[in-house]
Design a protein that fits this description.
By secondary structure, the protein is mainly beta. The protein has a single domain, classed as Porin. 11% of the residues lie in helices and 62% in strands. It has one helix spanning 2-23, and strands at 34-46, 51-66, 69-81, 94-109, 114-130, 136-154, 159-165, 167-175, 181-188, 194-201. Strands 1-2-3-4-5-6-7-10 form an eight-stranded antiparallel beta barrel.
């Protein structure tokens, strides 16, 4: 299954790139411009006592080093349930997180206003688990590297809508309480990795 996903991504990228020479003159984020973007995702969770909303909020600032190629920094915050790492962690515990990351983003034109994008990123996250009394019960560090595919559609010269769909990569999570490591890799398509937002380009 993982090989199939990688193959699909490779074919999609190759096809999109084959169209770039014909459409790049239309869709262009010009070299030397700055862009600012914010993305948000939502996820719901509930138990016998409550229904709550979690999700991610990310803000990015980038500089265009070459037409349609942006490098930059991003910061994020999230709220979710604590994953079931072992029997000591209960499903009604919540998790708050903050993150910082560096990214490289390539826009591959599809039409005059629409582009497919691939964002490679290296991210660090701090995750704090809380019980129902908001007492800290776990602390974790997560390091991840991977690619986020997405789409960008310009509404005007400087304003665009953006979306990311999933995360393909590797993550290492260290539990500070037990000093145990958890590894994950592959394509992650959960709600927190499906984000929607806006982009300002100047």
């Amino acid at each position: 299954m993982k090989k199939l996903l990688l193959f699909f991504l490779l074919i999609t990228t190759t096809f999109s790139y084959s169209q770039e020479r014909e459409t790049e003159k239309n869709f262009k984020i010009q070299k030397g411009s700055w862009n600012y973007s914010g993305q948000i995702s939502f996820s719901g969770f509930s138990d016998a006592n409550t229904n709550e909303i979690g999700g991610d909020l990310n803000a990015q600032i980038g500089y265009t080093i070459k037409d349609n190629l942006v490098i930059g920094l991003g910061f994020g915050a999230n709220r979710s349930r604590v994953p079931l790492l072992d029997n000591a962690i209960q499903s009604d515990q919540k998790e708050l997180g903050i993150s910082a990351y560096a990214f490289v983003k390539k826009y591959i034109p599809i039409s005059e206003k629409l582009a497919f994008s691939l964002q490679g990123e290296l991210r660090y996250s701090y995750l704090e688990g809380l019980d129902n009394n908001r007492v800290t019960i776990s602390e974790r560090d997560r390091y991840s590297i991977g690619i986020r595919p997405g789409l960008t559609y310009f509404l005007s010269k400087n304003l665009a809508l953006s979306a990311n769909f999933g995360f393909l990569g590797y993550a290492l999570t260290n539990d500070r309480n037990t000093n145990q490591n958890a590894h994950s890799y592959g394509f992650n398509f959960d709600a927190t990795n499906i984000t929607f937002g806006i982009l300002l380009n100047f």
